[in-house]
Amino acid sequence: MIPLRYVGRMDKVAASTSEPIFRIDGLTKIYHSGEVEVRALNGVTLELYESEMTVLLGPSGSGKSTFLNIVGGLDQASGGTVFFRDLELTKLSERQLTRYRRDHVGFVFQFYNLIPSLTAWENVALVTEVARKPMKPEDALEVVGLRDRMTHFPAQMSGGEQQRVAIARAIAKQPEVLLCDEPTGALDSKTGILVLEALTRINDELGTTTAIITHNASIQRIAHRVFSFIDGKISATHVNTERLKPHEVSW
Ligand SMILES: Nc1ncnc2c1ncn2[C@@H]1O[C@H](COP(=O)(O)OP(=O)(O)O)[C@@H](O)[C@H]1O
Ligand SMILES: [Mg+2]
Fold first, then answer.
1. CA dist., res. 77 & res. 26, Å (int)
2. What spacing in Å lies between the alpha carbon of 60 and ligand 2's midpoint?
3. Cα-based torsion angle of the residue sequence 56, 58, 63, 69 in order, rounded to the nearest 10 degrees
4. Which CATH superfamily is domain 50-74+93-240 in?
5. How far is the CA of 182 from the centre of ligand 2 (A)?
6. Residue 10 has pLDDT above 90, yes or no
7. What is the pLDDT of residue 250?
8. SS3 151
9. SS3 of 208, please?
10. What does the alpha-carbon distance between residue 134 and residue 118 come to, in Å, rounded to a whole number?
11. What is the residue extent of each domain of the chain?
12. How do 105-108 and 209-214 pair as beta strands?
């Protein structure tokens, strides 16, 4: 008999059949600004699964970015534990977190932060120069459908194209994990869909474990799994038995 895990993969219903890559337990984050204490995360417990696409949904201020920043090693927790495989992130020093990030995590943010004086190819190449097992910049650009735009500068590209260059830059070092904070937040729906198509393709073809933050509820249907945040807590968890393709989503 074929183990269930493989049956799941073949059916493309990967949800709940793959291994946890992140195990997060009782995660809290308290920010102190002057006299005021902000509880950004108030006991978040969840698992992210290898090779899945997860959507983190919730209103502004619900703790999504704080959560993703801690999972990505950009910020440190106030309490609780975060494991990446056997590595306990919540025990690492700043220096060790930097290495974790460099070796394992790609980030995509709402604003693309490309260097205006460099071409698309050069923007991606900046990252591949320091990576351990990089893709060629042209191959990373091919994945996001921009191979023919390699020599173009950011100002010659639309917002959605610039975001796809930023995605190519994030995946060029072949990270196991891709963390995206409102990647379509600055885009209209038509170009946003192209960005989501690029992320879906990366998840499908490279098997990159992907988490996408959004406050746009329509987008949740492209994910294997959805966690809803409210007030620093998980209010709901959902597994999509049928996923939509990005072009089937509208907002
Ligand atoms: N660096 C910070 N200092 C103080 N408060 C912060 C900081 N970052 C986030 N917060 C607060 O933590 C809460 C959660 O923020 P955030 O994680 O950015 O939410 P989301 O990404 O869901 O909009 C909000 O109340 C926000 O104002
Ligand atoms: Mg945010």
1. 10
2. 6
3. 30
4. P-loop containing nucleotide triphosphate hydrolases (3.40.50.300)
5. 7
6. no
7. 83
8. coil
9. coil
10. 19
11. 50-74+93-240
12. unpaired
Residues with CB under 6 A from ligand 1: 31, 33, 38, 40, 58, 60-66
What's the CA-to-centroid distance between 50 and ligand 1, angstroms? Answer: 27
CA nearest 104: which of 171, 58, 5? 171
pLDDT for residue 8: 34
Q: Give the dihedral sign, CA 46/48/54/55.
A: positive
Contacts of 95 (CB under 8 A, 6+ apart): none
Residue 218 token pair: 């329509």
Tokens of 235: 């209010």
Residue in 82, 79, 144, 69 with CA at minimum distance from that of residue 114 = 144
Query: Which residue from 220, 224, 218, 216 is spatially nearest to 242, judged by alpha carbons?
Result: 224
Q: Is the pLDDT of residue 79 over 60?
A: yes
HSE at residue 193, side-chain half, CA atoms within 13 A, is: 12
User: pLDDT (tens digit, 9 = 90+) per residue, 232-243?
Assistant: 999 999 999 999
State the Cα–Cα distance between residues 243 and 220, nearest whole angstrom: 9
Closest CA to 204 of 191, 186, 223: 223
- How are beta strands 177-181 and 20-33 bridged, if at all? unpaired
pLDDT in tens, 96-118: 999 999 999 999 999 999 999 99
